[in-house]
Amino acid sequence: MTDPEIYPVPADLAARAHMDRAGYEAARIAARETPDAFWAQQARRLDWMSFPTKIKDVSFNKEDFRIRWFEDGVLNASVNCIDRHLPHRRDEVAIIWEGDEPTDSETVTFGQLHERVCRLANVLKANGVQKGDRVTIYLPMIPEAAYAMLACARIGAVHSVIFGGFSPDSIAGRIEDCQSTFVITADEGCRGGKKVPLKANVDKALEKVAGVKTVVVLRHTGTDVPFVEGRDLDWGVETDKASPDCAPEPMKAEDPLFILYTSGSTGKPKGVLHTTGGYLFWASYTHELVFDYRPGEVFWCTADVGWVTGHTYVVYGALANAATTLMFEGVPNYPTVSRFWEVVDKHQVNIFYTAPTALRALMRDGDAPVKASSRQSLRLLGTVGEPINPEAWRWYHEVVGEGRLPIVDTWWQTETGGALISPLPGATDLKPGSATKPLPGVELEIVDAEGAVLTGATEGNLCITDSWPGQMRTVYGDDQRFFETYFSTYPGKYFTGDGCRRDADGYYWITGRVDDVINVSGHRMGTAEVESALVLHDDVAEAAVVGFPHDIKGQGIYAYVTLNKGVEATDDLRKALVAQVREEIGPIAAPDVIQWAPGLPKTRSGKIMRRILRKIAENELGALGDTSTLADPSVVDDLVKNRAA
Ligand code: WT7
User: Ligand 1 centre and the CA of 122: distance in Å?
Assistant: First the structure.
């Protein structure tokens, strides 16, 4: 049966988009049948110091596992994002910055970008940063975050950006994992009228981890922050002294460009490693195709550069395509819930890309705050981060887009580097709630729990059977974990961790994570990490964390906590536990619900049966399934009876 709700490709887009229906079909076939020729041709979109002759060298099998793209190519990512645009666009705007306060904004031309990136790159060099060294970046959404990333890319240093919402402990863990010796931060950030104490958080982190020799501090809000003699440098002072030119480091395509930490289903966050050639190519290719980007347009991706969406579509993909990219430091509801749409009008944004959670939050305030704006500059809308519920899709389409703008629902992951399943505005009819179809070169399979391939209209686990250039190359420092996490569940295939339905038209509908990862406001959270943070408390014996449906966040965090014998379950303790998680990981990991659990449902071998905990959290009490294999089935009755509201 075909879904009745279809939004066809608008005729004007079908006629003029970068890729139309026939182009899409042809590219799918070419990428599959003649990959080397196809990707070599596509790779010309980048500026290479030495064009690759080896294009694709890939095996997902254990014996000869390898993922290499454009292997003998040489390039520099910052040259692709800046220098190559200078001859035609030196005075055109590369970055529009919109501050937390509506009175604060600024533009940066490609010429200015070049100078500022080079100056900072020279500061890094002068302080001993060499090719391959890891540089930690902990900055707000300001142009300097892009300068810092590009300055690293210019000299071949590997950046590790940490989202400003992560705690000192999280910073310390990430610095330690990649043995970073250099940190770039700011005095403070501003979000929704509140200050974020970035420098203070870095100072606390560096009490817990050794090895950092230098901290460059940007004066952003200008508040007084203590400087550690011999360690801390003032960004402004140092870059003023530095030369405005810095020769770009020639990088092999497979040289790492960055590490970005993301939560997994077990243990500590993984350092997802992306490369210079394949990643940059995929960022640029997908930015152009998915958003049908044309030079001169203003592109606004609301994601923070602390997440992969910010890396790929605020910085690398956008700038590689000479886009004018908008960076917004604030939040959607400050000073009012019209802020997004005011910014659209103020900067004449053409393409707007955000997360379903933001749309759901704004929807609650009705249509008036949207309708108070013009939005006539908008040409295309996008979403990312989690499945978008059809209700939010329709609101986005009808109210924000006045029924005239296509919506690209882009499915991807930190690991994939850029979008893999997405409509192409000129080629794909839309269905609300579906990320639609794979991009050229993306070979999907849906398998059952045993790995049997399911064909036709079906539902199961989403796998990818062949590599694409933007694929992550390893977990930093742990090739074994990389292979085990992604390629061992279904041998020979990359397992996404997502459940997925395919309809009779071949459209893909992501149903959510099938592993112990929850998606909170479009951000991935490992349940194991939250559990570890909870059990650090002296009064806690054990904790189990699951996701549950949350109106705004998509999924909320539901924690079952068993206290030590004799400890009283008080509201103060509940607050202390939430505070502990904020402290250990960051505010985004704070549990929404804590239920006291005298016991957890375990099998006789001691394994916690999360399926049951999920059902209780979801309030699907009739669907608890078979509990007879539990060591003590009576614990379930107690959990149901005392279910937190
Ligand atoms: C997980 C990846 C890609 C950048 C943001 C999140 C979910 C992402 C969609 C979408 C349905 C989506 C998946 C995926 N997800 N986009 N359009 N429709 N689900 O990156 O933190 O690496 O999380 O987010 O579950 O596996 P991430």
Answer: 36
Would you state the pLDDT for residue 266? 77
Going by C-beta distance under 8 Å and a sequence separation of 6 or more, which residues neighbour residue 507? 3, 431, 434, 436, 437
Q: What is the pLDDT of residue 3?
A: 57
pLDDT number for residue 645: 65
Residue 499 Cα to ligand 1 midpoint, Å, equals 12
Has residue 409 been placed in a domain?
no
Quick one: pLDDT at residue 264? 83
What would the pLDDT profile of 493-542 be if each residue is shown by its tens digit? 999 999 999 999 999 999 999 999 999 998 999 999 999 999 999 999 99
492, part of any domain: no
CB of 419 sitting under 6 A from ligand 1: no
Domain boundary among 331, 354, 376: 331
Query: Is residue 506 situated within a structural domain?
Result: no
Atom of ligand 1 nearest to the CA of 414: 22
CA of 263 to the centre of ligand 1 (A): 12
User: The CATH number of the domain where 109 resides is what?
Assistant: 3.40.50.12780
Nearest CA to ligand 1 atom 10: 411
Which of the listed residues 331, 361, 381 is the one where a domain comes to its end? 331
Query: Residue 498 phi/psi, 5° resolution?
Result: -105, 145
pLDDT of residue 268: 86
Q: Measured in whole angstroms, how far is the alpha carbon of residue 9 from the centre of its chain?
A: 28
Point out the residues of the chain with pLDDT beneath 50.
1-2
Domain that residue 280 falls in = 79-331
Residue 387, marked binder:
yes
- ipTM value of the model? 0.99
Q: What is the C-alpha separation between 510 and 601, in angstroms, rounded?
A: 29
Which residue's CA lies nearest to atom 2 of ligand 1?
A: 413
Ligand 1 near 561 CB (within 6 A): no
Tell me how far the alpha carbon of residue 618 lies from the centroid of ligand 1, in angstroms: 21
**CA-CA distance, 277 to 275, in Å (whole number)?**
6
CA gap 221, 325 in Å, rounded: 23
SS percent in the chain: helix, strand, coil, step 5: 35, 25, 40
- Name which of 429, 454, 428 is nearest 439 in CA terms: 428
* Both structure tokens of 276: 């210079």
- For residue 116, the CA-to-ligand 1 centroid distance in Å is 33
pLDDT at 1: 43
Instruction: Looking at the CA of residue 412, tell me the nearest atom of ligand 1.
Output: 3
355-394 pLDDT, tens per residue?
999 999 999 999 999 999 999 999 999 999 999 999 999 9
- 385 annotated ligand binder: yes
Average pLDDT of the chain to the nearest whole number: 96
Q: Which atom of ligand 1 is nearest to the CA of 410?
A: 17
Which of 470, 547, 480 is closest to 516 using CA atoms?
547
